[in-house]
Design a protein that fits this description.
With about 475 residues, this protein is mainly α. The protein has helices at about 5-30, 35-45, 55-90, 95-120, 125-160, 165-200, 200-215, 220-240, 245-250, 255-265, 270-285, 285-300, 320-335, 350-355, 360-365, 375-385, 385-410, 420-425, 440-450, 455-460, 470. It has 2 domains: about 5-240, no CATH class; about 245-470, no CATH class. It is about 70% helix and about 0% strand. Helix 4 packs antiparallel against helix 8 (about 220-240) and helix 12 (about 285-300) runs antiparallel to helix 16 (about 375-385).
């Protein structure tokens, strides 16, 4: 991705967060650590009392462990949620304006709360009381933001129900989030309530609340400095984007692979290049790109992680399950007797969606598979991490959408609509329903703007599209409209 120090730092931090995700988040979920933390916090919140005094030996180390736990649940987990979960799982759902406002609010509050905590406890009584009022306001805003994110995520999950491919997918939609989001929603919310209880009255704030909220003197300066450094570095690398020139070089370095894939699958190379540019200029930071790569490596190597971890990967940001279903779609339509044989239910198309994708087998047979379908996760992810194969898979996905719309009605061809191609590329198979008046989403509109740029047109000349003979002879059919 580059040799700049920010890219290097982002790669290193991605490794740290990946190790944390595996060693604490995943292992903690399996071992019940997060559930235990939630129950313990709920007990103290319900009783609204302070824990009994600890022994002298524990008293020396208790602040350290309390601070480490709050650093994990109150800082690291929210960062992973904002950097990975929202862009990969929740960004394609509706309510995007609300999502953007909540995400900006969450980042602002996260910085404000931890900056206040790391400054230490004020000594003057008047300053301590002013700090209490600010802390109460920040905590109330933080609690409301967590609840708003939880409500919006539930709403998004309900929106996704019509597109769930099986009963297992519906179960996963509601079963996996509570198991995964306990350390993201429940524990942070209870921590906020606990601090609010201690800060609500001046008396309790002076007695226990301020000591619990601010970094205690017994929390060593190295730990404080490490906390500050982690916060500042994470904010820097998570917000860093490649410059316009760097992103153009990133795309142009892969020009041969883009042209080869476009020629093989009869798609516009400018659309592929514009999608790659928008993805890496507007959406991906080098930190997130590396973090996704490492996390998907863990997903590929651990079958016990299940289908829930399905993060976009590679230069064209393709989800392994999307690539797997696309390859299986081709095989099943060419050999109908092998209809979804051996495929897990969560990777099958629903009957309604499959009806939309009844494409001519003779055309599909003429299109080579970009990667070999494999039930082996490691092989699938390795293929998608290969730049050429990843770009070829993206071209294949665009070709499938073009076939679908031309098969429904040759007059509905989207070959001349880069914005619609990009929209469908982002939305996926379930949301592609051919009709005569499609509208692009924000991603598609942005891709169209880049597609028109002179450097795209110069490096990736537009092919001379015309209705092919077999396209004109395709039987007509109608489908519902694209949202």
């Amino acid at each position: 991705m580059g040799t700049g120090w920010l890219v290097w730092m982002g790669d290193g931090l991605a490794t740290v967060f990946t190790a944390y995700s595996i060693l604490f988040l995943a292992a903690g979920a399996v071992a019940g650590i997060h559930i235990g933390a939630m129950v313990l916090l709920w007990y103290h919140v319900a009783r609204n009392t302070e824990p009994p005094p600890v022994t002298s030996s524990l008293r020396r180390t208790a602040p350290f462990w309390r601070w480490a736990a709050e650093l994990s649940y109150g800082l690291l987990n929210p960062i992973l949620y904002l950097v990975i979960l929202i862009p990969n799982v929740l960004s394609l759902q509706r309510h995007q304006t609300v999502r953007q406002v909540l995400t900006t609010t969450a980042w602002t509050l996260l910085v404000a709360v931890w900056a206040a905590r790391l400054m230490g406890r004020p000594t003057a009584p008047a300053r301590l009381e002013r700090a209490r009022r600010w802390v109460v306001a920040l905590l109330i805003a933080g609690f409301a933001t967590v609840l708003a994110h939880a409500a919006l995520d539930l709403w998004s999950a309900l929106d996704a129900l019509p597109f769930a491919r099986s009963s297992r997918a519906v179960v996963l939609l509601f079963l996996v989030p509570p198991l995964i989001f306990v350390p993201v929603y429940a524990v942070p919310s209870l921590l906020i309530v606990r601090h609010l209880q201690r800060a609500w009255t001046p008396e309790r704030w002076t007695r226990t609340g301020a000591t619990a909220f601010f970094a205690a003197p017994s929390v060593t300066w190295p730990l404080r400095i490490a906390s500050v450094a982690l916060l500042l570095v994470t904010l820097t690398v998570a917000g860093y984007r490649l410059s316009t020139d760097d992103t153009q070089r990133f795309v142009l370095d892969r020009r041969d692979a883009i042209l080869d894939a476009a020629s093989t699958y009869d798609v516009d190379p400018g659309v592929l290049a514009a999608i790659m540019y928008v993805t890496h200029r507007d959406q991906l930071s080098p930190f997130r790109f590396e973090l996704e790569r490492l996390l998907m490596g863990g997903w590929a190597g651990d079958e016990s992680l299940g289908p829930g971890l399905n993060i976009s990967v590679g230069v064209m940001q393709i989800k392994p399950m999307t690539a797997g279903v696309a390859c299986r779609l081709r095989e099943n339509l060419i050999a109908p007797e092998q209809r979804w044989v051996g495929l897990p239910k969560h990777q099958m198309m629903s009957a309604a969606t499959e009806q939309e994708w009844l494409l001519p087998p003779e055309r599909l047979a003429a299109v080579p598979a970009p990667i070999q379908r494999s039930e082996n996760r490691r092989r699938l992810v390795a293929d998608l991490l290969d730049d050429r194969k990843n770009i070829a898979t993206a071209a294949y996905l665009l070709a499938l959408h073009q076939m679908q719309w031309e098969h429904a009605d040759p007059a509905w061809s989207i070959r001349q609509r880069p914005d619609i191609q990009a929209t469908l590329y982002q939305l996926g198979f379930d949301r592609s329903r051919p009709h005569g008046a499609p509208r692009s989403n924000a991603f598609g509109t942005r891709v169209l703007d880049v597609y028109r740029a002179p450097w795209i047109r110069g490096a990736f000349p537009k092919p001379m599209f015309g209705q092919s003979a077999d396209a004109r002879l395709l039987p007509r059919g109608r489908g519902p409209g694209l949202d």
